[in-house]
Design a protein that fits this description.
- The protein has twelve helices and 26 strands.
- The protein is an alpha/beta fold.
- The strands form seven sheets. A four-stranded mixed β-sheet has the order 24-25-1-26, covered by helices on one side. The protein has a four-stranded mixed β-sheet with strand order 2-17-19-18.
- The longest helix is centred in the N-terminal third of the chain and has 13 residues.
- The mean pLDDT is 95.
Length: 428
């Protein structure tokens, strides 16, 4: 399905959906707990559906309601309902599942869609082999057999934090104590903090013994509980940038006490000369005279695509550092944003880790009047949403090709655009 976006002025208020990162973690912790838990403020995106189905395969009983789920956790790891786990395109689900499912000691095969099986899993592959366990990674699947054990693990800090989180879910259930030492530079630490926060909520103790070492006590148990998922700052960013470039918007549904690394969007926008006011349950973002700035993505890589849009319409240069992991997502997000923004005449270039954008005045960076543009989503939800924001500022209507990719994380995205006054039409 394609979407046709007519440029227009946005206004009013938009409420941000719950955090995908926190939903993944709460569902997993509740599924590993003995007894019944309730998770409130759930949004059923493809990625969250993937985690739900995975935990069902592990043996959890999960009942879905409109905006909450009830989870009766697993009794043990001996009663799997399936040993073939489909992870769709969810890198988080896959990397969280691998250590957890290993505890069953059964042969488990994981499959996926899109680029999922192309995404690197070297950290786990090396770890499993060092422990004498089976880990077979092909273009179609990953097969494991054998349980990870307590011990002292050393991981690179400049790869995905999902590997660290995956171990954090599983190691407390092993018999002995463990440590995870993360080599410098420790990037995406905020995601590890979110995992440790969720573990604590469900009764599992983990602690930093120093800035780069996590201590995990063994032989622990998860405890059932009730948890409400907070709003998602990575989704907030799309509407915050839209407001800064298009028209004032009140964006609600996010916690100001969050540990989400993507909360960095607030400080980044302020650096770019965007006026922001605190309001109840969120922020009022003012349309502003946006200027280029220096941005570090080390702890907030999901913000990369929409910050490229911000830089495209800013005055002066925007330099985005530590962006290399964007190349290993659902698409090569750097290459994708270069391709799509150049259709608007934007000067954008990159190397492996950095992106430099020479912005223009808004009126100079809007495409050709009456020439309908087609922006390719590259089958990537964050590219689709980022280019939809750019499309509201063009001089003529724009197609978003394969716009259904937003279902991966934010199925209501185009409905929310309509609610704030942007005309969006379905096109086959």
């Amino acid at each position: 399905m394609n979407k046709l976006i007519t440029p227009g002025i946005c206004s009013g208020q938009v409420h941000i959906p719950p955090s995908k990162s926190m939903a993944h973690r709460s569902i997993i912790c509740a599924a590993l707990a003995k007894g019944k838990s309730r998770i409130d403020n759930i949004d059923y995106s493809k990625d969250i559906d993937t985690t739900i189905e995975g935990m069902r395969a592990l043996g959890a009983e999960i009942t879905l309601h409109d905006d909450f789920i009830e989870i009766d956790g697993i009794k043990d790891f001996k009663h799997l309902k399936s040993t073939e786990i489909f992870c769709n395109e969810s890198g988080s689900s896959l990397r969280f599942f691998l250590p957890i499912f290993s505890l069953s000691e059964q042969t488990i095969t994981f499959t996926g869609a899109g680029r999922l099986m192309e995404r690197p899993q070297n950290v786990y592959e090396d770890l499993f082999h060092e422990l004498g366990l089976t880990f077979i990674h092909t273009a179609e699947s990953i097969t494991i057999k054998g349980a990870i054990q307590s011990g002292d693990y050393v991981l690179d800090g400049n790869v995905s934090s999902q590997f660290i989180s995956g171990l954090l879910f599983a190691l407390p259930l092993c018999k002995g104590n463990s440590t995870i030492t993360i080599k410098k530079p420790f990037e995406s630490k905020s995601y590890v903090d979110l995992t440790m926060q969720m573990l604590e909520y469900f009764g599992v103790e983990t602690d930093f013994s120093d800035d780069h070492t996590i201590y995990i006590k063994g032989n622990q148990s998860y405890h059932a509980g009730c948890y409400t998922v907070e709003g998602d700052y990575s989704q907030f960013a799309f509407f915050a940038v839209l407001a800064a470039l298009n028209h004032d918007l009140t964006v609600t549904g996010v916690s100001k006490a969050t540990r989400q690394g993507d909360q960095a969007i607030i400080d980044i926008l302020k650096q770019a000369n965007v006026e922001i006011e605190d309001v109840h349950d969120g922020f009022l973002i003012h349309k502003s005279d946006v200027t280029g700035c220096e941005i570090d993505l080390a702890d907030c890589p999901d913000l990369g695509p929409i910050l490229c849009v911000l830089g495209a319409f800013a005055k002066g240069k925007t330099h985005i550092r530590n962006a290399g992991r964007l190349r290993l997502k659902e698409s090569d997000r750097i290459l994708a944003m270069e391709s799509e923004l150049r259709k608007l005449g934007v000067e954008i270039r990159s190397c492996e880790q950095d992106i430099t954008i020479t912005g223009k005045h808004l009126d100079q960076c809007r495409g050709v009047k009456d020439q309908i543009l087609a922006f390719d989503s590259h089958n990537d939800h964050r590219i689709a949403m980022s280019m939809s924001v750019a499309a509201t500022l063009c001089q003529s209507r724009s197609f978003i090709v394969h716009a259904e990719s937003v279902n991966k994380s934010y199925p209501q995205f185009f409905d929310d655009l309509r609610r704030i006054g942007i005309e969006v039409s379905d096109v086959l």
